[in-house]
Design goal:
two-stranded antiparallel ribbon; 3 helices; 2 domains; Membrane-bound Lytic Murein Transglycosylase D, Chain A; 21% helix; alpha+beta; single chain
């Protein structure tokens, strides 16, 4: 249902439901936000994008969604909409602390 690089690919289980007519409906279960311990905080600057912040902090621009999880944000653009805002940044997948 999701491409291999998606945050939902392995972390959200597939399931199915059979409706009254016998039709099988396949879907993903709900994804609940994990508890994330941020390793740093960064200040958003004019023109910052979340993928750039993810690259600077974790070395992977596609891990921007981890920053969303750490800040409990549903829309990535909300985190960079206001320059001067401080946002939490989790460490890389290795668990190492990040210095910015």
């Amino acid at each position: 249902m999701f491409f291999r690089g998606s945050r939902y690919y392995q972390s959200v289980a597939d399931t199915e439901l059979t409706d009254r007519s016998g039709r099988v409906i396949r879907y993903k279960r709900m994804r609940f936000l994990p508890e994330v311990q941020p390793s740093a905080r960064v200040t958003v600057h004019e023109g910052d994008r979340l993928d750039l912040i993810a690259y600077r902090s974790a070395g992977d621009p596609e891990s921007f969604w981890r920053i969303c999880d750490a800040n409990r944000a549903l829309r990535p653009a909300d985190l960079t909409a206001a320059p001067g805002r401080s946002i939490a940044v989790p460490g890389a997948d290795t668990g190492e602390q990040v210095s910015l």
